[in-house]
């Protein structure tokens, strides 16, 4: 059995097990699906947010904002809804990227494992860190990386690289350390998508390589929290059904765009993602108050004061 096949089997088993449990719980409480109100709004939100999630912007932040603004999901159900509605899209996205994008499988596995280890071990101490300070630092760092990439695109700095399909030696070690840190910061509600895109680009690797890593990391973290929320029944049954089915339209559409555009234009897309994410981090850092208690929980199920898109 090759490493790639083993990784695919692990992904499928994780997705099938948690989705099966979700389906069982929804059928058990099918009375909560009654009523046609809010269905259209949930469909629109699911397709749009999962489209941007696949691009690397993330879906948690936009979904939380939409749920609250249009009163689509009760505030107390938002954390569980965010995790349970991302199951099939994360699993399918993972399988799509690893079977379409050429990359070194050991690089992928090493970075995903590092992220998971960082998340599980980091959950014990990261909650003691200053979230506001971290957001300021991350926001400024992403802007700097966006400027560096833009300068390379405009010919102001060397723009070599961007074609490697894997990391080796000291670069892989550094990448794993960064992934472990990002995995730990997910426990504070700080997303890993944009920072991971930034790291990949700075190391001269094809930006598209970041997507299997981002999806792979969430594929093995989100279900852990989802099991807990499903067991406690603290999620929107309607949105879980809609996003795990109709939401795939957004995922497939974004996947097609990512895998069909040249690296040059993909780098510009990365710059846009970095700028947007930097803005959201700095905006959240400037807010004096977080969201309602218990609203923001990362893939580990740990409460945080607010949540930036993964």
User: What is the radius of gyration computed over CA atoms, rounded to a whole number of angstroms?
Assistant: 18 Å
Number of separate strands: 2
Counted up, domains total 1
Query: What is the 3D shape?
Result: globular
Taking pLDDT < 50 over at least 5 consecutive residues as the criterion, the unreliable ranges are 289-309
Q: What topology, given as strand order, has the largest sheet?
A: 1-2
Helix content: 55-70%
Q: Helix-strand pattern, N to C?
A: HHHHHHHHHHHHHHEE
* Biggest β-sheet strands, sense, barrel: 2 strands, antiparallel
- Proportion of β residues? under 5%
Separation, N- and C-terminal Cα atoms: 32 Å
Number of helices: 14
Structural category: mainly alpha
Q: What value does the average pLDDT take?
A: 84
Structure description:
This protein is mostly helical and 310 residues long. The chain has one domain. The protein has a two-stranded antiparallel ribbon. A hairpin with a 5-residue loop joins strand 1 and strand 2. The longest helix is centred in the first third of the chain and has 26 residues. The C terminus is likely disordered.
Structural topology:
Layout: H1 3-28, H2 39-55, H3 60-69, H4 78-84, H5 87-100, H6 105-122, H7 131-153, H8 170-185, H9 193-202, H10 210-219, H11 222-232, H12 237-243, H13 248-260, H14 263-286, E1 296-297, E2 303-304
Antiparallel strand pairs: 1-2
Helix pairs in contact: 1-5, 1-11, 2-3, 2-12, 2-13, 4-11, 5-10, 5-13, 6-8, 6-10, 7-9, 7-14, 8-9, 9-10, 9-14
